[in-house]
Amino acid sequence: MDKKYTIKDIAKMAGVSKGTVDRVLHNRGKVSPTALEKINEVLNVIDYEPNLIARNLKSTKVYRICVLLPDPEIDSYWLPCVNGIQEAITEFKAYSVVIETHYFNPESTKSFLNTNENIIKQSPDAVLIAPLFHKETLEIVKQYDELNIMVNTFNNQIEGESIKSFVGQDLYKSGRVAASLMNLILTDGQIAIIHIDESLKNAVHMQEKEKGFRNYFDEKKISGFSLTTLKLKHPNVETKFLAFVEENPNLKGIFITTSKAYQIASILSSIKTRKIAIIGYDLVEKNVNFLNQGLVHFLIHQNQKRQAYLGVSTLVEHFLFRKDIPETILLPIDIINVENASFYVS
Amino acid sequence: MDKKYTIKDIAKMAGVSKGTVDRVLHNRGKVSPTALEKINEVLNVIDYEPNLIARNLKSTKVYRICVLLPDPEIDSYWLPCVNGIQEAITEFKAYSVVIETHYFNPESTKSFLNTNENIIKQSPDAVLIAPLFHKETLEIVKQYDELNIMVNTFNNQIEGESIKSFVGQDLYKSGRVAASLMNLILTDGQIAIIHIDESLKNAVHMQEKEKGFRNYFDEKKISGFSLTTLKLKHPNVETKFLAFVEENPNLKGIFITTSKAYQIASILSSIKTRKIAIIGYDLVEKNVNFLNQGLVHFLIHQNQKRQAYLGVSTLVEHFLFRKDIPETILLPIDIINVENASFYVS
DNA sequence: TTATTTTGTGTGTTCGAGCACATTTTTTGT
DNA sequence: ACAAAAAATGTGCTCGAACACACAAAATAA
C-alpha cells in the first residue's frame, strides 16, 4: 500500500525518538553509529516523503520575490506579463510569499539600474528580471549573487555564466517558423524584414529572429525570393515605409520582428492595389484585429503571460516545495491565424 | 502592510474566541447577533485568507480520484494522457490524494461499463472519464450522481445536462483551422477528408472535424475546390486508398480526422509521382517523422497530455483548495509544422 | 573516585485551521 | 423564583515537521 509514513512512524520502527530521526534526516550530527544504522535500515525499506504541508506550516519565514520589467504603460507589450504575475499571486496568496512588481523605463538604462537599487533595498529572496540591457544586467546579477539573492530571467536570453535560469522562447527558431509560413503563402517575390522599435534596445532580440528567418530560406535554397531588411523608427515609420513600397513593386511579403505589425497593416490597408502578406508577433489587440480583417496572415505568439507566470512560479515552488529551478524553459512557438486566435487571447 | 491574518488575530480584534470566529466563517450557527456583527466588522476591514496549509494538515481525509480511459496498449493515442496523469500524481503526491488509473477496451462498451463498476466499488470522491460511448456514459454518470461522486470528462464532449464539466478541444473549430491551412497550401483541386478508425466509436468526434473543415470552404465561397469524404477501415486501408488515388487524378490534398495520418503518408510515400498535401492530427511519433520528411504538412495538436492533466488537477484542487471546477476548458488548437514541432513533443 | 566536558537522546512546543467538548449565559417553562 | 432546556461562547486537542531545550549517558580530566 501507498501509506504515508511520518517521522513518528520511522522513530517507532527504528526504536528511537523522533528527535533522533530528525537529526539523521537533516544530518545535523550528534547521532551514535548504532542509532544511525537502525534508522537507515528503516529508511531503506520504506519510502519516506516529508509532508510538505506540515513543513511549510511551521516555518514563519515570508519569502519575498520581486519582478522587474518595463513599465507596460510605456510599452504595452509587457501588459500580459502583469496578468501572468497576477495569476501567480492569486495562486500562491495562501502561502507565505510576497510577490512585488517593479517597473522601469525601457528606454533608460539608468531607470533599469535605479529600480534594481530599490529592489535590493527590499532585500528579497529572489528576483525575476526582464534583462533588456545586456551589460547592466550582468553587473546587477553580480550584485544579487553577492547578496545571495536568487535570480531568474525571462523574455530575452542573456549569455553569461552568472545567469542560471531563463524562461522564454527560442527567437531564432521563431524566425524560422515565420519563414516557413511565408514560404507557404508566397511562391516568389521580394520579402521585407522590418524592425520597428522606438528604442532599439532589444536589437539582439530582433536580430535573432531575422537570422532564423533568413537562414530558413538560405538552407532550403529556395530561389525566386529576395530578402531585404528595413529598420523603421518612430516618427518616420509611415513615410519611409510608403516610399519603400513604392520603390519595390515586387514586394510580396513582410515579416515584422516586433509586436508592431498593426502599424504596417494599417498603412497597407490604405493601398488597396497591392496584395502583401504580413507575418508578425504577439496577440496584441490591434494585431488580432488586422488578423481578423485578413490583412495579417499569421502571428507568432510569444506568450509573455505564461513566461512571467512560469518565471515567478518556479521561484515560489523552489522556496515552498524545494523544487529545482530549470535552467531553461523554452515555451512553444505558437502559430496563430484567424481561425485559432480566439483560443490564445486571454 | 500585507500581513497575513489568522483566526486568532480576528478573534482578538473582535473580542471573542477563535471558536466563535470559526463558526461565523463557516456559518455553522449558534452565534449571537452581537458577536456576528463584531466579527463581520473586523472581516470587512481586514482581508482574511485562510491558511490552506494548516487546513490541509488537519484533515485526515484521503481523497480518491479515479481516471477512466481506453487502454493505451490498444490505442496509443491515449499514451500521452498517462503522462499527464503521472504529472498530476507527482505534483500532488505531498497531499492526501490518491489518483488511480483504470483502462477499458475502446472497442467494447461492455468493457467500459465493467470498468465503471470496478471504479464504483472503490467509492472514489471523483472520476475523470473519457466518455467514448454516448449512451453508456449518460447512464453511468447518472449512477455517479446518485452516489454523490463528482464527474469530470475529457477528450470528447458529450451533450447532457448531467455532464457538468469538460476539458478538451473545439473539434469543429479544429476542422476549420485545418481547412484554413489547406487553403493556404493549395489553390485548387480535389481534397479528401479521410476517416481512419478501426472502431468507428468516435464517429461524432470525426464528424465534427469534417463539419468544420467543410464549413470553412462553404463559408468562404472558395471555388476551384471539391471535397470528398472517404471512410477507411482496418484491413482494406491500403487497397481502398490506392484505388481512390488512382481514380482521382486531381486529388491535391488530404485531411485526416484521426491520429492515423502516418498510414496515409506511408502509402503515399511509395507514389513519388503525385504531390499531395496532408494535414492530420496529433504528435504521435510516426506522424512527426513524416512531418520531418515533408510528407505531412501540418498537424493539429490535441494536447491529450494537458487535457488529462487539467482534468485531474481541477478535481484535486477542488477538494484540496476548494477551487471551482470550470464548466468547460477549451485548449488552444495548436498548429504544428516541421519548424515548431520539437517544442510540443514532450 | 568525583567533577566536568562531550556526546547522544528524548520531550515538548510551535505553526493555523478545524472541530469536539466543556463551560457559561440566556431563554423558556412551571 | 427556580429548574431545565437551549443557545452562545470558550477551551483544548489534533495534524507532521522543525527545532529548542532538558536531560541522560558515556568520555575525559583532576
From TrEMBL, chains A, B:
Pfam families the record matches: LacI, Peripla_BP_4
Record Gene3D superfamilies: 3.40.50.2300, lambda repressor-like DNA-binding domains (1.10.260.40)
A GO MF term: transcription cis-regulatory region binding
Keywords: DNA-binding, Transcription, Transcription regulation
PROSITE patterns cross-referenced by the UniProt entry: HTH_CROC1 (PS50943), HTH_LACI_1 (PS00356), HTH_LACI_2 (PS50932)
Organism listed in the record: Flavobacterium pectinovorum
Protein name: LacI family DNA-binding transcriptional regulator
Limits of the HTH lacI-type domain: 5-59
Keyword ATP-binding: no
